[in-house]
Specification:
The protein is an alpha+beta fold. It contains eight helices and four strands, in the order βαβαββαααααα.
Length: about 200
């Protein structure tokens, strides 16, 4: 049994969705960042946290990688060229999509008000749109990012796509918009969002 700590309006949704895709049992403790329950298992106070046999695992990407490897699903085998391509896609998404959205969030409501730079969002949106063009050129012929098999990067990208919509970062590439529409229809994602 896994315990997932964190609210669904955070990267915790990635972990909940993956567990739903895998059909695994878990407990979900909806807790906000830096809350006492979170700090007790992650001194940085960040969510999500996955607790496995009393051991906390932090960072959504590390958790997704652990679950994929442990259960042999939503991933290619370690040491294969397909896995190298998958890991490359994961890093690209974290660097180009997640990072831009996170920086915008920091300058919107996370940093102390006197440290926020609202004008930075314009350059982040520009980078986000440019990154979409690169992504579309890298996408395999679907239905998933890597081709016929859903993998960890699909969860990360769809989460970023939903985050972008909330943050008013436009999705400008029709192929990406169509992909996101398909992914948002997945029953496992709907179950995770219903929590």
């Amino acid at each position: 049994m896994y315990t997932v700590i964190g609210g669904i309006k955070s990267r915790t949704l990635r972990v909940l969705w993956m567990l739903e895709e895998l059909g695994l049992d878990y407990d979900h403790v909806a807790a906000g960042p830096r809350s006492p329950g979170v700090v007790a298992v992650n001194p940085a106070g960040k969510v999500p946290v996955l607790v496995v046999d009393g051991t906390p695992i932090t960072d959504s990407t590390a958790i997704l990688g652990y679950l994929a490897d442990k259960h042999g699903a939503l991933t290619f085998a370690a040491g294969t060229l397909d896995r190298a391509r998958q890991d490359s896609m994961t890093q690209f998404l974290l660097d180009e999509f997640d990072a831009a959205l996170w920086m915008a969030a920091r300058h919107s409501f996370i940093l102390p008000e006197e440290l926020r730079e609202a004008s930075i969002k314009n350059s982040l949106k520009w980078e986000f749109e440019r990154s979409q063009k690169t992504l579309v050129a890298r996408m395999a012929e679907g239905p998933f990012l890597m081709g016929p098999v859903m993998t960890v990067p699909d969860i990360i990208l769809t989460h970023c796509g939903n985050w972008a919509e909330t943050a008013r970062f436009p999705i400008t590439e029709p192929k990406l918009a169509a992909y996101l529409a398909r992914m948002r229809d997945r029953p496992a994602l709907k179950r995770a969002l219903a929590q």
